Amino acid sequence: MTCPDSIRIEVTRDIPTCQALRKVVFIDEQGVSLAEEVDGLDGKAIHLLAWDGDCPVGTARILMNGGVGKIGRVCVLPEARGIGLGEALILAALEELRRQSGISEAYLGSQSHATGFYEKLGFAVEGEEFLDAGILHRHMRRAL
Fold it and tell me: Does domain 7-103 have CATH number 3.40.630.30?
């Protein structure tokens, strides 16, 4: 599935807009606490912002640690789901990681119900399930 032509994804420094999207999905929709969502790492991250026309509809965050890029805080507003935007955000994050010097693999913590989605994008599950913000997750990794 591909996103409509009206969707664009770009690297952004507009952290407040990314945080507002994450608030809607993680705090309001999924019940994650503000303390768990706001971890103090946004200033160190690369942020992707997805737009439908002039309306922000999704985001993802990338943190670098050694040769690994951690993709996280991936979210899509409910009204923008089902059009391939989640996949487009992950592919854009992988492309951004390929542009970074010395990064050879991508890592993420997937909500357990979404591991099949990430497996289709080349990620493999590692280790046992764990709780993060009260939600079951699995670590996943893939080479770039």
Answer: yes
